[in-house]
């Protein structure tokens, strides 16, 4: 079981609608069960520097089956995952915007969003996940 291109398109459409609603152009990435990129869009005006960040957030969320917001909260000094962002070649993103995608209780992919504040990124990713 994994995210299909059709699934990714639905996730992206839902996330784009939320990004438009909050008025912040975003980069939106969807990865499959193996963490491989299925689809990505960069809305007009979204930062190019956020392309890789959105993909890393999606990958991180799938790699650890946790939202990047929750991972980030647990990655602060004194917390159980402190330093995790230095692993996996620095690919681990520990700020809000990545959410796992589940089907029948099994994580089959993830969405990653970057381009706004952490709160905006998380809200847009949540909307994308809801569209799954």
Automatic annotation (TrEMBL):
Entry superkingdom: Bacteria
One Pfam match: HbpS-like
Gene3D superfamilies: Haem-degrading domain
PANTHER family per record: PROTEIN GLCG, SLR1406 PROTEIN
Descriptive protein name: Heme-binding protein
Taxonomic source organism: Microbacterium lemovicicum
């Amino acid at each position: 079981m994994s995210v299909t291109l059709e699934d990714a398109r639905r996730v992206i459409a839902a996330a784009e609608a939320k990004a438009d609603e909050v008025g912040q152009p975003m980069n939106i990435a969807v990865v499959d069960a193996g963490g491989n990129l299925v689809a990505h869009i960069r809305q007009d005006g979204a930062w190019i520097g956020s392309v890789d960040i959105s993909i890393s957030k999606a990958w991180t969320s799938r790699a650890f089956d946790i939202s990047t917001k929750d991972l980030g909260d647990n990655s602060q000094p004194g917390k159980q995952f402190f330093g995790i962002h230095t692993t996996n070649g620095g690919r681990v993103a520990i700020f809000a915007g990545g959410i796992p995608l589940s089907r029948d209780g099994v994580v089959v992919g993830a969405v990653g969003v970057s381009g706004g504040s952490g709160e905006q990124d998380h809200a847009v990713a949540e909307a994308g996940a809801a569209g799954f």
